[in-house]
Design a protein that fits this description.
Largest sheet: 9 strands, mixed
Helix content: 25-40%
Radius of gyration: 24 Å
Number of domains: 1
Number of strands: 19
Oligomer: single chain
CATH topology: Alkaline Phosphatase, subunit A
Number of helices: 11
């Protein structure tokens, strides 16, 4: 063996070790078993309200709460049931909404004064008033919202969608999460678990950092000129190609090489996508992006979500939250604080809907707005806040083939429990997948000797909310 061949072999050998570490040992992907359904949507923007906004103060109008305000009424307490198993009803003081409701749009849907801007778009929204979920605490409920499980490590929804559909753009990731929180599941909420790592979410910024700093990390190298970076990349890919020739048909090696190629393309594409400086003054105003305005931070995130979807990202999550022990909307003793959060998100979300619609993107984009659970219709500890309520709450969706101006299901007369046309979180997951052309019962991945799916063994498509 001459010196040149020896060095080539050694280089490829070390490259093989690196590829093994990078790619991991994954089970066979069962993508061939996924049937292609007629798709009404191509992408999803999930606007996550961390902490659980109160449905009875926002979208679920219950006149009885005004009539019975201050009275003691027996309710089944989800927290007591979860902590001790005691299912006996407990007396709590009814607490009326702190904001008045009024009808909006041609559909006449009720929205509280908290969301005057969103209220202008009710004719594009499909409300589900009968949501219920698993987990009384933020951690389990947030994990269930994102991953379909309260405690096991499971792939997140964006990862499942990326696995099932891939990305529309070869230069950007298929799944991006904007401003994620490190609490209540943290990276697991956008992780790929046992799915190949290529399907995990790519974070942009974090919950407690300024939105203006949200950018793809480590896509540039300021210490090298573009020419030098190109030379280095070409050299690495030459080694990669030598490995491919020595190991033809190695799917894991191909995946690792492709990841390097994606990273290189990302360096060219990402800075332009995250740069908002080219947007018009009218667009910035639409999202409430004005220096010093309470809407500037979330407005930037929502505008960035539109730009990512427009560029081909399949699943974008936009989180309104923080990294504190008590998430943003978690008002156990200070319900008036809801007004501050509503002010920050109302105009940006309304702007997102208007912008998508005027660009022709809303038709095949699902906008999903909601939190991990709702809040109780009674005051917590007879105080001035509300406790967690996983047994009945509201979420809304727009675009992507969901019925516009429609309301589905209902909670009881107090807004406590879902009682009519109940929709479990598994059902909502199954319905969103269906609109994307994915059968939730067939979207599987074989791991540890069994086929896993996002909805586990549960869930059904709620066809009543589809147009």
């Amino acid at each position: 063996m001459i010196r040149r061949h020896f060095l080539q072999s050694v280089s490829c050998g070390f490259g093989g070790l690196a590829f093994s570490a990078l790619a991991g040992r994954n089970e066979e992907v069962s993508g061939a078993r996924i049937p292609l359904l007629p798709a009404r949507a191509k992408r999803v923007i999930f606007v996550f309200m961390q902490g659980g906004p109160s449905h009875v103060d926002t979208f679920d109008y219950k006149p009885l709460l005004f009539d019975r305000d201050g009275q003691m009424v027996d309710f089944y307490d989800s927290r007591k049931i979860a902590n001790s198993g005691d299912r006996a009803a407990t007396a709590h003081r009814v607490m009326k909404p702190l904001w008045d409701f009024s009808r909006h749009g041609e559909c006449g849907r009720h929205v509280s004064a908290l969301f005057p801007e969103m209220a202008r778009h009710v004719d594009d929204m499909c409300f589900i008033h009968s949501m219920h979920t698993e987990g009384i605490a933020h951690g389990p409920a947030t994990l269930f919202l994102h991953c379909g499980a309260t405690n096991f490590v499971r792939p997140s929804m964006g990862s499942w969608i990326s696995y099932g559909l891939g990305s529309e753009c070869e230069n950007l990731p298929g799944f991006v999460t904007i401003g994620p929180s490190s609490g209540n599941g943290g990276a697991r909420n956008y992780g790929s678990a046992f799915l190949p790592p290529v399907y995990q979410g790519t974070p942009l910024g974090r919950a407690d950092a300024p939105a203006a700093t949200a950018a793809f990390r480590n896509v540039g190298n300021p210490s090298l000129s573009p020419e030098k970076q190109r030379q280095r990349f070409d050299f690495i890919q030459a080694l990669n190609e030598a490995q491919r020739q020595r190991r033809p048909g190695d799917a894991e090696l191909d995946a690792a090489v492709n990841s390097y190629e994606l990273a290189w393309r990302l360096q060219r594409e990402a800075p332009g996508v995250t740069d908002l400086s080219g947007e018009s003054a009218a667009t910035l105003e639409l999202y409430g992006i004005r220096e010093g305005s309470p809407t500037e931070e979330f407005g930037r995130k929502c505008l960035l979500a539109r730009r990512l979807c427009e560029s081909g990202v399949r699943f974008v999550q936009v989180t309104y939250g923080d990294n504190t022990a008590n998430p943003a909307w978690d008002q156990h003793s200070n319900m008036p604080k809801h007004a501050d959060h509503a002010l920050a998100v109302d105009k940006p979300v309304a702007g997102l809907l208007a912008d998508l619609k005027q660009r022709g993107l809303l038709e095949d984009t699902i906008v999903w707005f909601g939190g991990e659970f709702g809040r109780t219709p009674y005051a917590q500890g007879n105080g001035t806040g509300r406790d967690h309520n996983p047994k009945g709450f509201t979420t809304w969706l727009a675009g992507g083939g969901f019925k516009p101006g429609h309301a589905h299901g209902a909670t009881d007369e107090f807004g406590h429990m879902a009682v009519e046309n109940k929709v479990h979180m598994h059902d909502l997951h199954a319905t969103i997948l269906h609109q994307l052309g994915l059968d939730h019962e067939k979207l599987t991945y074989r791991f540890d000797g069994r086929n896993f799916r996002f909805t586990d063994v549960h869930g059904h498509v709620v066809r009543e909310v589809l147009s």
